[in-house]
Write a structure and sequence with these properties.
Chain A has 10 helices and 1 strand; from the N terminus they run βαααααααααα. Chain A is mostly helical and about 170 residues long. Chain A has 2 domains: about 100 residues, Alpha-helical ferredoxin (Fumarate Reductase Iron-sulfur Protein, Chain B, domain 2, Orthogonal Bundle); about 60 residues, no CATH class. The longest helix of chain B has 21 residues. Chain B is globular, with a radius of gyration of 31 Å. Classes of the chains: A mainly alpha (about 170), B alpha/beta (about 675). At the A-B interface, strand 1, helix 1 and helix 4 of A face helix 12, strand 23 and strand 26 of B. The complex binds flavin-adenine dinucleotide and iron/sulfur cluster (2 copies). One iron/sulfur cluster (SF4) binds next to helix 9 of chain B.
């Protein structure tokens, strides 16, 4: 890794963006590492888990990490939010950064799939496995949600068509 | 026959966890002269002491041995128990089977038990040979001295004075105030240092019980608690302070250029100068080392007469002074004046200095844009060299990027191993103040780690981070000088695990707090000991934090170790309260563990005289020839004389030859 010249980094700009996109806790982080210790993203071996992403943002990184897929691995378990001693809300920082990534179309393929699932059926995650399981325990194949409801699906599509997500042109 | 009682203490599990206490007690019963031997969980507790008192009152014992902890803390307690039961309190001996046994031989229970038996045997042997001794008392001179007029000395002096005691406040600079007077604002509340300190300095200057001796230093110390004789040298000011109004006209007129130490050398002052604008006392001095003797008018000489005007040619300082306070023709004594002051107690509050940047070759000390943090305080102070404007020293331009480096000389085995304790906080303070005043600054701060353990301190730090100040964990290893007077700080961000660098206009080094060299000399005069970090050592780090090995001398402020103003003031008030105790008691006890000369045996050889570290011995005529006498009030009972006397004429009470030989015999024969 080459040396980073801090004076030449556009630190305030990226911090400002993350704050605007909902990650206002980013400035409070003291890098204690509590969030990292329990973060499934970190455990799975992704490089930019919560603490690391926050430090990169604090240092002024943006473009260099835009294509990193780590943030998309966040399952929003919110364990980091629970343990953070500074009220940073790391999940929100990750989501804020995802929004920045999405705006640059730096979205991982797995995530693209969930987005189109969301658009079509109102669910980001649709699993064939769960259908079998439902039948096995005596439930109908699909849950009583938008999956079965064309009217609801239309409403969701209208909502998304009118949200900033439509501008991304992924649906 | 002496009737010795032995009391073996468990000290909870401190002793009993290692030493077989029951075995020691049983063994003691077999020793000569021992009439009773007991054991107890905590001998120093009231029921423990009661065991002793009861045995004495019942007539069972008349000599007491307690086998327990250290006499340093516990001997006085047990002596009191003897006294209250009606026995001479010097019929007491302690065997230290904790600090010198169980604590150090925790891995060898059998060996520790054997050693405890030996120590008890030796204490018993001495106890049987003890003699009754009596305390004596001397009156206490009703005055105190405070050395050093920083915030510590100021508060110690004020408290003592407000308790009604006469106080002499000795300060080596022309004004009191110390480092706090140099600070801009102060963490954690950011109140202006001058605003909170100046009124208190004025209170000191006008207090009827305080006699300020500024521009003065301690030259010699004699005596002991209650009766110190301190010689103080009042340095020559060459200005008649009874006339000087502090207007500063001489300082303005003086053409000499001397680095201004109050502004950390960032500008020049004259040879005639006033220490700083809010000085107390606000009086001018002429620093003769740098005086140019303008108009050829040397001190003590009549002025030359101008050939043109026929008038005497006076130096600018003389001419400028409307109060006629500077008269160079007078025979000013360059040695100043030596005065002797008698006081009962002393508080040492001589403070500290910060390390200069020259020690740190890796941080480009030659660049004028590398500053110590104390220089930074002056640079942002309204009374500083730029009137409080943040300007880059190299070219007077407004800096855009600032970089702070912590632990420069602290926590570094090449310089000082200790933490200077205030740097993290004052760096954050300076960064916050600068950020508030100049919001477009970029400020970077490198820390080994941020230490903010005081009240409201961590909140202070958190706020700084939220203000946009960049905190970087990792200590920079060097600075490169860039062609445009900027400085490239070579750092490492250990949180990211990446090398980083900052191109800064100004770099501020938080250099370590240390004791100045002349403090060593002062330490010798007062027989102070130094701790491992080079500061004045307190008697006990927890229980006697302001006391020293020299009774009647107390410590306050940074001369005892680095600390911030809240801790300094708290310690100063503690020192004042402790120094007031002997004054309030009006007399102090002199313990009889002292040396005495038997004149009949003394040959008058005088060997002992120069050996005594306390100058307590002199030769005085006795019968046919001069013989040694020991001044009881000076003697500290060290015993050097007793062991050196070739005629065996000196006896150290409490440690007589008989007593010591009996101890040795017991140690070598027992268990
Ligand atoms: C850059 C910097 C910023 C700081 N900022 C803060 C802050 O914001 N808040 C805070 O709480 N603390 C701050 N501190 C710490 C603060 O300076 C100290 O806590 C305080 O000054 C200690 O006071 P003192 O009286 O012990 O020592 P000093 O201030 O050093 O005073 C000692 C006095 O004794 C005199 N003296 C020395 N030797 C002799 C002698 N032999 N004979 C006679 N007189 C003698 C000296 O001339 C001096 O007047 C800061 C320190 C530094 C270095
Ligand atoms: S737990 Fe909070 S403060 Fe600690 S590293 Fe994670 S985000 Fe930062
Ligand atoms: S004679 Fe007076 S004016 Fe001239 S250098 Fe000396 S102090 Fe300054």
């Amino acid at each position: 890794m080459p040396t980073v010249n801090l004076t030449q980094m556009n630190t305030h700009e990226i911090i400002q963006k993350v704050v605007e996109f909902g990650g206002d806790g980013v400035v409070k982080c003291i890098q204690c590492g509590a969030c990292a210790s329990i973060c499934p993203v970190s455990h799975a071996g992704f490089p930019l888990f919560c603490k690391q992403l926050i430090r990169k943002v604090q240092t002024g990184y943006e473009e260099e990490i835009l294509d990193d897929p780590s943030t998309w691995a966040c399952v929003a378990c919110n364990r980091c939010v629970e343990v953070c001693p500074r009220g940073v809300n790391p999940t929100e920082v990750i989501f804020a950064f995802r929004r920045i990534q999405a705006n640059e179309l730096a979205i991982s393929t797995s995530s693209l799939m969930s987005q189109s699932n969301l658009y079509e059926k109102g669910h980001a995650v649709l699993s064939g496995e769960s259908k079998k399981l439902r039948v096995k325990v005596g439930l109908p194949e699909n849950p009583p949600t938008s999956v079965n409801d064309e009217k609801a699906q239309k409403e969701i599509q209208t909502l998304l068509d009118n949200s900033p997500m439509a501008d991304l042109g992924i649906f | 026959m002496a009737k010795v009682g032995v009391y073996v203490c468990h000290c909870g599990s401190n002793i009993a966890g290692v030493v077989d206490v029951a075995a020691v007690r049983e063994y003691a019963e077999t020793l000569p002269d021992v009439v009773v031997s007991r054991e107890y969980l905590f001998m120093c507790s009231d029921p423990g002491q009661e065991l002793i008192r009861k045995d004495i009152k019942d007539g069972l014992v008349d000599r007491v041995v307690v086998a327990a902890c250290t006499p340093r803390t516990h001997e006085p307690i047990f002596r009191k128990a003897l006294e209250s039961a009606g026995l001479n309190k010097y019929f007491f001996e302690m065997a230290n089977i904790r600090d010198q046994d169980s604590w150090v031989h925790g891995d060898d229970h059998a060996g520790a038990t054997r050693k405890a038996k030996q120590l008890v045997a030796s204490a018993v042997a001495k106890a049987a040979n003890l003699e009754a001794l009596e305390d004596t008392y001397v009156d206490v001179t009703q005055a105190a001295m405070v050395v050093g007029g920083g915030v510590a000395g100021i508060f110690a002096a004020l408290d003592l004075a407000n308790m009604g005691h006469k106080v002499y406040l000795v300060e080596k600079e022309p004004s009191i105030g110390g480092v706090m007077a140099q600070l801009d604002k102060t963490f954690p509340t950011n109140d202006c240092s001058a605003c909170i300190l100046t009124p208190i300095m004025v209170e000191v200057g006008t207090h009827p019980n305080i006699e300020m001796l500024t521009y003065a230093e301690v030259e010699d110390v004699d005596g002991y608690i209650g009766n110190f004789k301190v010689k103080v040298r009042k340095k020559q000011t060459y200005v008649d302070w009874t006339k000087c109004t502090g207007c500063g006209a001489c300082a303005e007129a003086c053409p000499a250029k001397v680095p201004d130490s109050f502004n950390c050398g960032m500008n020049d002052r004259g040879a005639a100068y006033i220490h700083f604008p809010q000085a107390v006392p606000k009086k001018a001095v002429v620093d003769m080392k740098h005086c140019l003797n303008c108009a050829g008018h040397k001190i003590g000489q009549e002025p030359r007469i101008s050939k043109k005007t026929g008038e005497p040619m006076l130096a600018p300082c003389e001419k400028a002074c409307a109060a006629d306070a500077i008269n160079r023709s007078l025979p000013w004594n360059p040695e100043g004046e030596l005065i002797e002051i008698e006081v009962g107690t002393v508080v040492l509050a001589t403070g500290y200095r910060v390390m200069e940047k020259e020690h740190f070759k890796e941080y480009a000390p030659d660049s004028p844009n590398v500053l110590t943090a104390l220089q930074m305080e002056r640079l942002i102070s309204a009374t500083g060299p730029t009137g409080g404007k943040l300007l880059r020293p190299s070219d007077g331009k407004k800096p855009k990027v600032l970089d702070f480096i912590s632990c420069v000389g602290s926590r570094d085995i090449r310089h000082h191993t200790y933490c200077s304790r205030v740097c993290c906080m004052y760096m954050i303070k300076q960064a916050r103040l600068l950020m508030e005043k100049y919001p477009d600054l970029e400020i970077y701060m490198h820390f080994i780690d941020v230490r903010t353990p005081g009240k409201d301190f961590d909140e202070y730090y958190t706020h700084a981070a939220e203000m946009g100040i960049h905190f970087i964990k990792g200590k920079p290893g060097g600075i490169e000088m860039l062609p445009d007077d900027r400085l490239r700080v070579l750092g490492y961000d250990s949180a990211m695990g990446e090398n980083i660098e900052v191109d800064a206009d100004l770099v501020i080094l938080a250099t370590a707090i240390e004791l100045p060299e002349d403090a060593q000399k002062l330490a010798q005069k007062f027989s102070m000991t130094m701790d491992g970090s080079g500061f004045f050592k307190e008697l006990h780090p927890k229980l006697k934090p302001v006391d020293t090995p020299i009774e009647g001398v107390f410590l306050a402020g940074c001369c005892q170790g680095p600390k911030d103003i809240p801790d300094t003031v708290a310690q100063a008030k503690a020192a004042a309260a402790s120094a007031a105790i002997p004054l309030a008691q009006k007399r102090v006890k002199i313990e009889p563990i002292l040396s005495e000369v038997y004149p009949e045996k003394c040959s008058g050889c005088g060997i002992c005289v120069p050996l005594c570290p306390y100058n307590a011995i002199s030769l005085k005529p006795y019968a046919d020839r001069p013989r040694a006498v020991i001044d009881m009030t000076q003697c500290k009972g060290c015993g050097v004389c007793a062991s050196a006397c070739p005629s065996g004429a000196i006896i150290l009470h409490g440690y007589t030859d008989d007593q010591i030989y009996s101890q040795i015999a017991a140690l070598t024969q027992s268990a």
